[in-house]
Amino acid sequence: MAEAYLVEAVRTPVGRRGGGLAGVHPADLGAHALNELMTRAGVDPAAVEDVIFGCVDAVGPQAGDIARTCWLAAGLPEHVPGVTVDRQCGSSQQAVHFAAQAVLSGTCDLVVAGGVQNMSQIPIAYASVGATDALGLTEGPFAGSRGWRARYGDQEVSQFRGAEMIARDWDVSREDMEAFAFESHRRAVRAIDEGRFTREIAPIEGVTTDEGPRRDTTRERMAGLKPLVAGGRLTAALASQISDGAAALLLASEAAVRAHGLRPRARVHHLSARGEDPIRMLSAPIPATAYALKKSGMSIGDMSAVEINEAFAPVVLAWLKETGADPARVNPNGGAIALGHPLGATGARLMITLLHELERTGGRYGLQTMCEGGGQANVTIIERL
Q1: How far apart, in whole angstroms, are the C-alpha atoms of residue 257 and residue 364?
Q2: CA geometry: angle 239, 61, 120, nearest 5 deg
Q3: Which residues contact 333 (CB under 8 A, 6 or more apart)?
Q4: Which of 146, 278, 288, 358 has its CA 20 to 30 A from that of 206?
């Protein structure tokens, strides 16, 4: 049976909005991760057969197939192509899936997967179809679609509404969400202080570590924030941070491992993606995880560590209720509420952190999942070697 191995993985620090990475061109952010990846792997970059990067809102400096641009900006061989993937927040996790599938199919032996996003330069384009005028829908990617309107009407479609719906549907209180968010910051600060991220980070522009975690945050400060929407439960403290960053992984076949003298660090055990209600939008990790575990013949208890993106606190808390996962094994080093969420890079960042956490603890299996626009979710299971 063919195998797809993770042989190297590295990321930039995650910069805060307007922080140390804000002025770095996205192509240079990605190029930095790529150069460090190839240096650490010790493989001739000319042997790479494709570069697959995730990026959301591929406009301005992120347009023009940023995967290809990053590779060229890194000064790497021109004959290596690149392609950019948009599965919303899961874009670079899907890039890992495509890379692994290329290796598993036997069509490629060495593939780079990753992602990049500079949200300081390109603010997130929130999807909303709530606004109308005399001519009908005027906002959002669904505006003017008769098929969409026939199926879902003109109700608001936004991640904020989706997060509020999850909090309501799974009865997740504001107090529980604030406790979770506070713990995310606490875990992230601990991870930084203990050097848990040091191996996975390639410093850039004088930034050596993630800028998002707040050492001075308190439950009392969180409790004093106003809800994002009137009467809602969510506040800014319960949402992921707008961020900048890049991440990259090298995937290899057994033949490439032998030919280039590589040391596999993990193998891809399972890949899948599922969809759910696009209006609630952010709850798809729940059915996607159930599907992945059933298809792989595994249980959540088999996972030594889990990385689920903290787009909003209720996403993870509802998932925990449904899966029965051990909270101590879920986002053990904090998540996007503390560390940030550079959209197109987050999937690869989570995979890199998961791999390093398994190596740090000696765990065997790790699961990654994340909510995505359109009501979708990817699930990846890796096995540390």
Answers
A1: 21
A2: 30
A3: 187, 188, 190, 191, 196, 197, 353, 357
A4: 358
Q: Return d(Cα 121, Cα 24) in angstroms, integer.
A: 9
DSSP strands (E only) in 276-364: 303-308
Q: What is the pLDDT along the chain (385 residues), one digit of tens a residue?
A: 799 999 999 999 999 999 999 999 999 999 999 999 999 999 999 999 999 999 998 999 999 999 999 999 999 999 999 999 999 999 999 999 999 999 999 999 999 999 999 999 998 764 444 443 333 434 567 777 899 889 998 888 889 999 999 999 999 999 999 999 999 999 999 999 999 999 999 999 999 999 999 999 999 999 999 998 889 999 999 999 999 999 999 999 999 999 999 999 999 999 999 999 999 999 999 999 999 999 999 999 999 999 999 999 999 999 999 999 999 999 999 999 999 999 999 999 999 999 999 999 999 999 999 999 999 999 999 999 9
Catalytic residues: 89, 341, 371
Question: Between helices 313-323 and 285-296, what is the axis angle to 10°?
Answer: 40
- Spatial distance between the Cα atoms of 345 and 70, rounded to a whole number of angstroms: 13
Contact at 8 Å (CB) between 92 and 58? no
Closest CA to 192 of 350, 14, 40: 14
Tokens standing for residue 199:
């191996």
Tokens for 36, please give them.
């460090």
